[in-house]
Sequence to fold (196 residues):
Amino acid sequence: MPDLDSLCVFCGSSPGIDHAFLAAAEEVGRLLASQGTRLVYGGGRIGLMGAVADAALAHGGEVIGVIPRSLLEKEVAHRGLTELRVVTSMHERKAMMAELADGFVALPGGIGTLEEFFEIWTWGQLGLHHKPFGLLNVAGFFDPLLAFLDRLADQRFVRPEHRGMLCTRAVAGDLLHEMAEYRPIDVWKWLSSTES
Fold:
């Protein structure tokens, strides 16, 4: 089983319009703190980002934020974290978060959240990491995306085994349990089969 000592959470810098999103972010923070799992995230103090960090901190959790200097200077950084790492670019931010984390979860969010999550999935598909990743499908937020992913697989733009890499649950505890049971696929076996 993967050792999830540290989990990276991607989520919105907005709270969204459904209170369920905020409640889910707070639940994730509480759950990680109660399990002794370090939270790694984008370092913001607003929206779902701030909510997940505040909840983890309030329950005695360790929280590491990673933020580009350009956002730090706009005063959106959370100043009460266990550690705030300041980097020079968004690319460096993603690389550092990936290095610090044993797994990845996306909560509701916007373009940035999706971009970060899909890059992690791409890296996993290519065998650049073997860490679990999942979507917390709060209030069916990701249902349209999941349907589109199924369409990609139906149209053979995504292999079934790669579609199967994605963990998805509506409840945070269930998602973390599924991720703890994650078994990485043999990417090199797939690459060899595509070349023959």
Summary: The longest helix spans residues 19-35. The chain has nine helices and seven strands.
